[in-house]
Amino acid sequence: MKVLIVANKNSGSFSPFVIEQGSSIAYEGVEVEYFGVIGKGWTGYLSCRKKLIKKIEECKPDLIHAHYGLCGLLANLQRKVPVVTTFHGCDVQSTTMLRCLSRLAMYLSKYNIFVLKSMPDRAGYKKKNYSVVPCGVDLSVLKPMDMEEARKLLNWNTKDIYVLFAGSFDEPVKNPLWAKKCIALAGNYKLVELKGYKRSEVNLLMNACNLLLVTSIRESGPLVVKEAMACNRPIVSTDVGDVRYVLGETKGCYITSRDETDCVEQIRKAIQFSMKYSQTDGRDRIIDLGLDIHEIAKKIICLYKQF
Q: Residue 167 to residues 90, 192, 201, 290: CA-CA distances in angstroms?
């Protein structure tokens, strides 16, 4: 079986989770090729149609797997090769034209994958040709290591308290200003921006920080939370997406309301846990939930084989 993965490449490269999922699918014996979409807005995406048709003619895939609604719509502008589209959240949660175009992609696609159980209802999607399959975590890359060792490799102070912010400070949906305010109220802690790091460096960051802080206004199934759990890191997160379900009863992981006092309290609890126990048992929770990237790949391949 040959699969052509269609995904955004505006940054110059594919998102890490796209490559990781594609690689895990290839590891299971599926031949995988990629088509990167470069263009802004729906007109920019759709302008790539001719290049996509040419790619399809060249590689002759059995199936196209598109990531996000606009890529799904683009992939469906041809009707010879069946399309599976994965919806990751912002395409469904949007209240703009993006949501309308994403819904169109759902109805045109042969099959759909949603990363969160609530997404089909939120999108108003009534058909049954879909499955809920969250993004998996590469447990061979994201794994626990000694905090002091990780800090030495990053040239960090071994005595300071570091809090890893779950994203870039220039993403308003991540609520960075509120995170900075809560950290300032919590104590003399250093807030680290998760931006511009290679995947191998992300593992170091996770293990070097005392906790992961998620203050997002909305998310679907934030992969960074699963990655932190794979590294056995304490977590404080707002109740977004599937975070509450993924955390479960994991000690050292806390849900905060959007009240500053509550958030500060949860941050302090997580830091105390980190200082006392160092690590959580979050990795076991990830394994129990079947969120290892290779387990997810097997589920996706089973869906492919229907077509």
A: 15, 9, 14, 25
